[in-house]
Structure formats: C-alpha cells, structure tokens
Amino acid sequence: MFRFLLLFALGCIGLTGCAAPASSVLPAPAPGKGAPVGGGCDGCDGMYPGMPGQLKWETDVAPPGEPGEPLELSGTIYLADGRTPAAGVILYVYQTNAKGLYEPRPGLTGAARRHGYLRGWMKTDATGRYRFRTIRPAPYPNAAIPAHIHPVVKEPDKNEYYIDEFLFADDPLLTPGERAKQEGRGGSGIVTLARRPGGGWVGTRDIVLGRNIPNYR
Ligand SMILES: [Fe+2]
C-alpha cells in the first residue's frame, strides 16, 4: 500500500504512469454492487484506449529501434488454484523508456497518456501463456525507486486489477526494504534475468490470478 501511495505521489506529479489503490482516491462502491476485485485501481482503465481488437498471446511493446537493452518476458497465468492455466486473460503492461520516463503517445488522453508509449496487450491462449518483447525500463530519474513494468490483468468475468510490478532481482535499487514492500499480488513480480545470446535479457514470471488480491471472488 505504501509503495503505491508513494508512487501515486511521485507519478502523478510528472513521472506518471502509476496505478494507485482506489481506496485512497475513489469513493466507496455503490451499495449492493460489492467492492471491486483488487480494491479498485485508479488508472487501470487506461488499459482500454488504444487496445487492439484482436489480441495474441504475445506482443511487441517496444517499436523497432527503441533505445535500450532488449528484454523478453514470458510466463504462464494460472487460475487461483495455482495449477490450471487461465485462458482468455488480458495482460496489459506499460513502462518507462530508457530515460526513465513515460513519454506520452500522441493522441491519447487521461490515464492512457500517463502510461507512456511503451505499452502492450496480450491475451492468454489455452495454455495460459504470455510473452512480450520490450526494452529494459530505466528507473525514474532522481528517485530511488526500482525500475519496473506495470501489469494489469483483466479476466473475462471481473473488473481489471493491478498486480505486483515486474521488478528485476539485479536492480541495485531493489533493496531489502523495497522487497519488503511488495504485496505479492498475483504472486511475486521479482524476475531474475539472464543474458540472452545475441544481446539483451530474458526472464520468466508466472502469475496466479487472485493471489493476494482483495475482494477476489
Ligand atoms: Fe511506474
């Protein structure tokens, strides 16, 4: 919680791109509707503007020639039992560029604009897999916050909710204190990267739907 409040304070000043728990910024849900899965999320609806009509299980987030170190992340999304692959789940990711900034893509407004131009969508196939190719994000300039990629999931029958950010185990900014702040939403987001032959980095992260997600039902 603290991490997201801090990110909200920083991000919405100018670094932007942050997602924040709606409990801090949005009114309580209407009576009879129940609390949103995940406790709400200010900015997660920024996943919808620009979303392609047809999604594949893999995508390219960074355009050709994007400055930065190539990075490929992949994994399997599982149902809450942690064993059954979850099909038809949309995974949306957005991140900073090699300057540590969410520089906006022209034509977008609101939360989608704050997410910057490095954003992408996947939809898991029958085996629950996802994969995206991007560049390694840089940390925010002049801030001691680890480099990260924001993920948001949208299950077919639930509202969208954020999960723990992708973080990188070799990041010197990922201190024990930062590790302790992680909520484990969807499981741990800390990825151990390996060098990929030919250059760049590769890593895996599996995601468990509902894990440490408030109001999950
Ligand atoms: Fe961020």
Keywords, please?
alpha/beta, six-stranded mixed β-sheet, single chain, 14 strands, binds fe (ii) ion, 217 residues, 3 helices, 12% helix, four-stranded antiparallel β-sheet, 25% strand, Protocatechuate 3,4-Dioxygenase, subunit A
Quick structural summary:
By secondary structure, the protein is α/β, with parallel strands linked by helices.
Helical residue percent? 10-25%
Overall body shape? globular
Low-pLDDT regions:
1-16, 20-32
Assembly state of the chains shown? single chain
**The CATH class:** Mainly Beta
Note the gap between the termini: 21 Å
Quick check: average pLDDT?
Answer: 88
How many domain units?
1
Radius of gyration: 16 Å
Number of strands: 14
Structural description of this entry:
With 217 residues, the chain is an alpha/beta fold. It has one domain: Aromatic compound dioxygenase (Protocatechuate 3,4-Dioxygenase, subunit A). It contains three helices and 14 strands. The protein has helices spanning 2-15, 110-114, 176-181; strands at residues 20-21, 41-42, 58-60, 70-78, 90-95, 119-123, 129-135, 149-154, 161-162, 167-168, 190-191, 194-195, 201-204, 207-208. Strands 3, 4, 7, 12, 13 and 14 form a six-stranded mixed β-sheet that branches. The chain has a four-stranded antiparallel β-sheet with strand order 6-5-8-9, with no helix packed on it. A two-stranded antiparallel ribbon has the order 1-2. The longest helix has 14 residues, at 2-15. Fe (ii) ion is lined by residues 7, 11, 17-18, 148, 150.
